[in-house]
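Re: the request from the purification team.
They wanted to know what the chain is likely to look like in 3D before they choose a buffer screen. I agreed to run a prediction and write the result into the notebook, where they can find it.
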Amino acid sequence: MLAYIFEKFPSFTQTFCAREVSAINATGIHFPVYSIRRPGNEPASAQMLYTGAVETMPEKYDTLLAENSDFRRRARKAIDDMKRLWGDESEKRRIYEALWLAPRLKEQGVKHVHTHFAGIGARTAFWLNRLAGINYSLTAHANDIFRDETRERLEQIFGAAAFVVTVSDFSCRYLKQNYPKLSEKFHRVYNGIEMDKFRSTSFPQEKPLIVSVGRYIEKKGFQDLISACAALGDRSYECLIIGHGPLEDELRQQVASLGLVGRVIIAGPKSEAEIAELLSRAYLFVLPCVTSADGAMDNLPTVIMEAMAAGLPVVSTRLAGVPEMVLDGKTGAIVEEHDVPAVAEKMAELLDNPELAKAQGAAGYALCKEIFDCQVTSISLIDLFRKYRALPSK
């Protein structure tokens, strides 16, 4: 039997996780879901992402350590192992989580767990395997493999995993090149979306709506988008930048300094339903992703899939897995990072040519239906679970 472990679930910033679990459930496969931390500071709508049962793990283990001598003894021994393996015990909470989970999973007949990101969930799964012999797999995404985790620890986590999924051909090649001895473990399965939650746009041409969505952080490239909007001159448009994050004030100041107040709107966070509604009224989606100064970058932004599901042409950058979504000249336009004049040129070309925008939007919708629909991606993942005996064969 299979189980899922998440660091925090459900989370509005990781809607693809909820979609994946729901899509697999929809095939008739059901399994327990555990969240290491209780979701906090989430929009109310986040609870609607997944309505099934989720068991949240304890916030503290002090009582268990004090009252359960066997748990305490095993934890101390494992912490010594952790010091030898990882150099210190800063991650000892992962051991407590593994020891708490193990008997519950065994009672449920769980022999394999899956988690997302090569971070906290994967480290808990690693110790669950080391201490209780329960197999695990993980889906690696972007910063978790490009920046956040050390190479040595990633090699340990990947090496102990039954298999590793990653969400683009780009990141799959990256992992195979960087961990050649483990190359057979890496598999690409795209993130999926529920396409029926998105309504196709009608391409309203009176004051065309340009939409962008993401956290207000450097790697999303919103500064470049605002600058590109300034280069559009007197064209009629409205640009909504939806999200939240530390750069919000800076983005508002940039809008004001460029004289774009009322034309470019830093709209703040919106619910999934509100975003879907705005996409259905939009003309163009733009996300000029960049590699940030600290090395962070997107891999396969879900918001681009959502725009494609709404039949919108997309302007983005040649970064990581983005060109697997945005086929230059077919489903939108790809430019180089930080090439603001090119972003503006492609936006202008689509704004000035509605037939081109509609054709590229239709091609994007068809591609999304073919490779990003949850009904497609969930089958690919289920096939891997069966191949590695996480689920029984048909």
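For the purification team: The two ends are 14 Å apart (CA to CA).
Please add any questions underneath this entry.
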